[in-house]
């Protein structure tokens, strides 16, 4: 029986206008009322998803989120970190050199703060337009504090050029980091082994649940691990071909209440 539903945000729970449909909201409320844990699994930090958590009534004691693509597992009501895995300062140096070689702008996230680094003289980061709820700073390469916790690094830029440069990333970088696209214009770097499945598995363990008790719903490359880990992996109709191939089942698109349909079919119906 499904006891935890893990849901991605962009392209999954949110429609193209970054809104949660009434049907999705109602299905999540019904699942929570029946004791099912509803967990947002996202690449964003907790501070950037609070409006959605509030809208879904997921800020009570016992509500959790998996943030930073599995780098943190947090309590939604207090923000308490119960599981974490972050980048080392030495990792940042490697990623800075990579971004400079690729002529791409690199941003480093430290909880709710984003540090824009001058790794490209001509290409400016678009990350601030994607996550306006975060606090953004432009800093020099020598201004990064070695003692600060850094959760992930991202490159937010035009999709065509970004995709061209992604092909140039050396294999040793892919061996050192999880390198994943989470949106068309967003490439993310996490510590090796840190994925949504990693964070979700830690939360499931803490809650005494098995993968068979988990349903994961997603659409993009950074959802692949979660889809594969879950007892029921659900791909949106708008998901990438890779996600659809990895999923157990497929639901409607994010414009057609796909999350609600999956919850009703595989969670609520099973409890009747």
Polypeptide structure, described:
- By secondary structure, this protein is α/β, with parallel strands linked by helices.
- The protein folds into two domains: 4-85 and 194-271, HAD superfamily/HAD-like (Rossmann fold), CATH 3.40.50; 89-191, Hypothetical Protein, Haloacid Dehalogenase-like Hydrolase, Chain: A, domain 2.
- Helix content is 31%, strand content 24%.
- The chain is built from ten helices and 14 strands.
- An eight-stranded mixed beta sheet has the order 5-4-3-2-1-12-13-14, sandwiched between helices. A six-stranded mixed beta sheet has the order 8-7-6-9-11-10.
- α1 (22-33) packs parallel to α10.
- It is globular.
- The termini are close together.
- The model has no long low-confidence stretch (mean pLDDT 96).
Order of H and E elements? EHEHEEEHEEHEEHHEEHEHEHEH
CATH superfamily heading of the largest domain: HAD superfamily/HAD-like
- CATH architecture of the largest domain, please? 3-Layer(aba) Sandwich
Distance between the termini: 12 Å
Indicate the mean pLDDT.
96
The number of helices is 10
Structural class: alpha/beta
Describe the sheet with the most strands.
8 strands, mixed
Q: How large is the radius of gyration? A: 18 Å
| CATH top level assignment of the largest domain | Alpha Beta
How is the CATH topology of the largest domain named?
Answer: Rossmann fold
Spans of at least 5 consecutive residues whose pLDDT stays below 50 are none
What is the count of structural domains? 2
